[in-house]
């Protein structure tokens, strides 16, 4: 998940430096952290739809799936099966509190190393799993890895990126996540026909990015910001010179020193976050995360193969359809990188609401009409139409609520509360991802086709929220947000009266 830029608002300043090979190597290594997260998101749906896996760990679900004991919508409704997917996010939520301390006390590099060790343990336990407990423990370890990696990698990327590339790199983390999801969909497509251990291969391949992150994080440098924060000022200057590839890094160095000093002056950022002046940023960041998850995206990302089987696809067709939605996810995220600073945030979010709403309502209507009783299936044409609609839904999400759910919280907080505010955003995301992961299959069973109308209703709420309460922040310098955005806004300006911000001028 993309980064909060803590090293001053260098976005508005030109410093000397070029993109060095070293920076590129560091970015690639850190990318494995994002890939790993995406891989874990995407892999569980395919694995939980594989017969060999179900027979071994969830025989009751296997029976339901093959003997039509229940209607289509309830085939996969099983709390443990959902726990296999969702426990990862609960573990990540818990780990992220510890990780944020480790990250600022001991640095980004060590935090990434710890993440990769968790990942490796998680991969061994899940791929080698012999009972449910072992695979759930494995997923929990993967979750610890995600908690640590998601704290360190975005910060690391934004701190080593040349300032003019920070925005693009911010969205790149989401891009790495989507690539990880796609790779996992592809792997599942091939391993589903490898019996009886295809699922072990799927879960085991996660070891590749985990090992790359582990070995790579020995090679990479610590970021200058983290070194300076931890009083290793001279080393910080040296590393800055090395990653920028120029002799004179004085300006950027001074700006990092200044930003670190400013950040230190804020005694209690969490208290400051609770004051009315921070209300707009806090409410918006939390709501964006809740809304991001209530678009229903992870119902698709986690359970697409299961969902496609629910509407009557065979195993291969279901997995292939997931590959297609994975591809749409990646390409639409790339679109966002190009469009976001040209078109602005609001228009992307609002357009996506319309697109997602239409897709969900039509899917809901088709399923409502065609999948009523046990044994019903969609016709081939209808099933293909549903896949197309899932793609238009994912497309809308991926160029808006996906990346912007992270970008906006990272740019609206003033420096004093940025880190703390972003931590809230990360934990809210993990919490609601957990809720969707744990509840979706049961909701599908209870609400049947109505689940799509449920998510569509949320899309209306988030559209209204965006329309009335989300100001445009495109091109607004970070230190001008209060004057140019919040004090001008019809609703949020009433919170700006008690403006007790310390005079932090971000340079
Ligand atoms: O690309 C979709 C993925 O992006 C996220 O919303 C993170 O921003 C995940 O929760 C989701 O699985």
Q: Would you identify the CATH H-level superfamily?
A: MFS general substrate transporter like domains
Uncertain ranges: 2-12, 503-507
Number of strands: 0
Largest sheet: none
- Supply Rg: 23 Å
If you average the pLDDT, what whole number results? 86
The total count of helices amounts to: 22
Portion of residues in helices? over 70%
Net shape: globular
* Domains, number: 1
CATH hierarchy, class: Mainly Alpha
CATH architecture: Up-down Bundle
CATH topology: Growth Hormone, Chain: A
Distance between the ends: 25 Å
Please write the string of helix (H) and strand (E) elements: HHHHHHHHHHHHHHHHHHHHHH
- Percent in strands: under 5%
Secondary-structure content class: mainly alpha
- Which small compounds were modeled alongside the protein? beta-D-fructofuranose
How would you describe the overall organization of this protein?
This protein has 507 residues and is an all-alpha fold. The chain has one domain (21-220, 266-495): Up-down Bundle (Growth Hormone, Chain: A), CATH 1.20.1250. It contains 22 helices and no strands. Helix 14 (279-294) runs parallel beside helix 20 (415-447) and helix 17 runs antiparallel to helix 18. It is globular and about 70 Å long. Mean pLDDT is 86; it is low at 2-12 and 503-507. The site of beta-D-fructofuranose has 14 residues, from helix 7, helix 15 and helix 19. Residues 26-474 form the Major facilitator superfamily (MFS) profile domain. Belongs to the major facilitator superfamily. Sugar transporter (TC 2.A.1.1) family. The chain crosses the membrane at residues 19-39, 80-98, 110-130, 136-157, 169-187, 199-221, 282-306, 318-340, 347-368, 383-408, 420-441, 447-470.
